Amino acid sequence: MSMVDRFAFVLIFFPCLAACNQVDNNTRLSNQNTSLDMTTSGQTTSLKFLALGDSYTIGESVPEEDRWPVVLANKLTVSGLPVEKPEIIATTGWTTDELKKGIKEASPKGKYDLVSLLIGVNNQYRGYEMAVYEEEFQELLDVAIAFADNNPSRVFVVSIPDYAVTPFGLDKDPEKITREIDQYNKINRSLAERSSVRYFNITGISRQASTDPELVAGDGLHPSGKMYHQWVDHILLGVKEMPR
Asked: Is residue 135 part of a domain?
């Protein structure tokens, strides 16, 4: 994710990743009064999932199967709620304005049963104005809701993890990083709640890396597969309970 323009200077060596896999739209859920359900007249329905973000969503430094949107889709499927392979629009180093451009260029088609949004760490890393983040995050949230057939109950926001506890962050100004990440998360949480969008706070999980180095990927900055699985364990039930 990362965020951090992938070690800014050093980071030029990591190619920007963006995965955008389009799949057929089977049956779209419409009843907003019940929980997500994959059965209709005995037929199984696979949900379409669009994940929007940066390196945290594309899973920088972990295998594809450990990307949290992929882990979530697989665990939902195993639990009896079939989900197609997630369509991911995310690239390491993206800020809110770059995600907006990336979405426009990818031009995803169709309506989605689930849409996630996780973005902002690179705004913080580059020192962008928080007022700009607030404006652009709201714009992205509106786009996410539009992709969900204008149904905010199908959209969820994931908080920004705190990279201050990673080896990379500890070499910067960890206290400043943590303080600003909290401020950014206060903004995105407020906007999510105002838009009636579900919010999942995984920041506390990310801070456990201060005592568990296995939660950090080999690059010393991004979450490991182990951490992404913990994120999913935290949000899985909530996603299953989201009205459709």
From this structure: yes
Question: pLDDT at position 44, please?
Answer: 64
90: left (phi over 0), alpha (psi -120 to 50) or beta: beta
Count of structural domains, the chain: 1
The pLDDT tens digits for 18-63 are 333 333 333 333 333 335 544 333 436 899 999 999 999 999 999 9
Q: Is residue 131 part of a domain?
A: yes
Averaged confidence pLDDT in the chain: 87
Tell me whether residue 29 is in a domain.
no
pLDDT tens column, 72-116: 999 999 999 999 999 999 999 999 999 999 999 999 988 999 999
